[in-house]
Design goal:
By secondary structure, this protein is an alpha/beta fold. It has a single domain, classed as TIM Barrel (Alpha-Beta Barrel), CATH 3.20.20.150. About 40% of the residues lie in helices and about 15% in strands. It contains ten helices and ten strands. The chain has an eight-stranded parallel β-barrel with strand order 1-2-3-4-5-6-7-10. Strands 8-9 form a two-stranded antiparallel ribbon. Helix 4 crosses helix 5. The structure holds zinc ion (ZN) (2 copies). One zinc ion binds next to loops.
């Protein structure tokens, strides 16, 4: 029997790039993470200073040395691809292209982004907007996959249900360049049952029938401050929120998702990961 959660699942966390992007793999390994997530640029800005040759090389070397299985880049929060505003659309396309270029330079495995809000447009229009932007941005020659993150359903965000995510994927031309990142807090906030065994199984069946497992590339592992179905995106430390360890036990013991990266984005960040890991370890006993 596994004693440590990191022997059992491909656990990771969002890691700071303070002091240089090349320091992040070592920081991840400090938590025994097998994967990690980072911002490759300031997440609240459109522009970024180009990555230097040296930092790229050092990053890739450290990643190899540390045997990191999956590097996920979280894209800027500004990239609202569900928008109907033409001017914003142009900026979002440029922004997504930049994220993909930087991810490929770093040889990252995925770029995860929030599809965004349709504002007062219809859901169908919002989904069409996302598809049209992705079909311009995704290129045959890119190596990295772009992952759409499920939303908590706040405001008029697109991507709250597996059905909405599958409608987006249906419209994508380059299907091998797209995937899904399943955020546990967002799914719960959107009303998916994750705690009871039967409810978890139903949720996963719903995911499988709408999307299939092959598009499910990774997870964001977050507990939730608010209750199921509240449509509020407020992360909590693992085991301290309304999902609780009972819910995370379902993910940990689910053979069908074994090996997929599970990235912590809990509110205390690196200060809180040891607590999260201790609580996850307690599931194994
Ligand atoms: Zn997330
Ligand atoms: Zn969130």
């Amino acid at each position: 029997m596994a004693q440590k959660i990191t022997d059992m699942i491909n656990l990771g966390g969002h890691i700071s790039t303070g002091g240089g992007i090349e320091l992040s793999p070592d920081r991840a390994i400090g938590f025994s993470f097998r994967s990690f997530q980072l911002f490759s640029k300031n997440q609240m800005q459109w522009k970024a200073k180009p990555l230097g040759k040296e930092e790229i090389e050092l990053f890739k070397k450290s990643r190899r040395k540390n045997n990191i299985s999956h590097v996920m880049i979280h894209a800027s929060y500004l990239l609202n691809s569900a928008t109907s505003d033409q001017e914003l659309k142009g900026k979002v396309m440029e922004g997504l292209k930049l994220e993909i270029e930087r991810a490929d330079l770093l040889e990252a495995d995925s770029v995860t982004y929030h599809p965004g809000s349709r504002k007062d447009a219809s859901l169908e229009q919002g989904i069409r907007n996302v598809i049209s932007i992705l079909n311009v941005v995704l290129k045959e020659e890119q190596n990295v996959k772009v992952l759409i993150e499920n939303s908590a359903g706040q405001g008029n965000s697109v991507g709250k249900t597996f059905q909405e995510l599958s409608m987006i994927i249906d419209g994508i031309e380059l299907k091998d360049k797209i995937g899904i990142c399943f955020d546990t807090c967002h799914a719960w906030a959107a009303g998916y049952e994750l705690v009871s065994r039967e409810g978890y199984a139903e949720t996963m069946d719903d995911l499988k029938s709408n999307l299939g497992m092959k598009y499910l590339i990774g997870f964001h592992m977050n507990d939730s401050k608010k209750g199921k179905g509240f449509n509020v995106d407020r992360h909590e430390q693992i085991g301290m929120g309304t999902i609780g360890l009972e819910g995370f036990r379902n993910f940990v013991y689910d053979e069908e998702i074994r090996g997929k990266p599970m990235i912590l984005e809990t509110p205390k960040g690196e200060e809180g990961y040891m607590e999260d890991i201790t609580r996850l370890n307690s599931i194994l006993r």
